[in-house]
Amino acid sequence: MNQKRVRDAAARPWRGRLLVMAGVLLVAFTLRTAVTSVPPLTPLIGGEILPPWLLGLLGMVPTALFGVAGLLTPLIMRAWSVEAIAVAAMAVSGAGQILRAGSGETGLFFAGSILALAGMGVGNVVLPPMVKKYFPDRVGLVTALYVTVVSLGTAVPPLLAVPVAEAAGWRTSIGWWAAINVLAILPWLRVWPPRGRGGMGAAAAQAARDAADAPRVVVRPWRSPAAWALALLFGCTSLNTYTMFAWLPTIVSEAGLSAGAAGFQLALFAGLGLPTSLFVPVLAGRLRNPFPLVVFGLACFVGGYLGLWLAPGTATWVWVSLAGLGPTTFPLALVLVNLRTRTHQASGAVSGFAQGIAYTIACAGPLVAGLLHEATGGWTAMFGFLAATLVVLGVSGWVICRPHFIDEQPRVVEFAERPRFQPDAAPPVG
Question: What is the model's pTM?
């Protein structure tokens, strides 16, 4: 049945899915704007309404809320469609960004940040099942496109933050991104609820009929060793990435680089995620077992860490470039959500579970690294800790990359009765 849906999707004209593609890419662009638009402006914001202790806490809030959203969103998916959830997530995120931009005191700013980041966390989860639902024949390509747009949405806000703040104030600088959230809602209003007309309505209605053709199931990914492996692959990648975001400037500054040079090295580390996000999902979709991509990421991490540990002040750009290629496993983990599931319902459950566990793990990275550095006065213990997480990354990558489907494993999927009135649905299975 799954192969039939893929063939049917391949036969559908792209014209009927372009609006969905626009919606996916617009949602993707919004998923980091509330995170990266604030740090360049913390001196301005902190001087008005944020105490120093809250500035430090804000650094942990994004990963914490992404983790909570990952664990809760699959529960919402049992009652709401992914299109409805996307609309709600963008609305909540936009409202949160407006609230904190207009806040005059700490509590409202913090509440607005929680709303904005929670909406983005939900958006993280719904994108993979959207791709699975509307583009089952182009999973690798569409994943590559939206992960690349996520990278752009991460890089653009900090570049514009200070110029916009100088021209119109910091409130406008962090608040105007809510307009992108509103823009991201518009395509989904045309798609949801599906309409029986031509164009996008026909494509959406076809996707709904495809979902109705499949048995109604409840997916419990925590019962699957492969889903745990995917969560650990995702989590260890994110832990290493966020640890480098937090501590790479300090590492190279202590090695003798200037503040400007340290900022460049961090930009280099972050920027290398753009090319890997373009080719990794496409390549993974063509490989029966994409474990060589995990090996590549591990080799880059190890090479970069060895250089930053033993000779951080010599050929620094080489070590940073290698370390920046290590998170190759991030876009790989995202595309594996769909490559290792058969239906968009299973994709949603696995996406939420894996990202919920992953971002919870990632929260610990910068904190543990800082504690180890403070306790030892050097970086050896921190790199030892990161090396241990790379072992977990390699083992989990080997498990999840093996060809199989999570929703075909015993005890993971349970069949449930359909609602009484579904004239277009297939009869219950089993």
Answer: 0.80
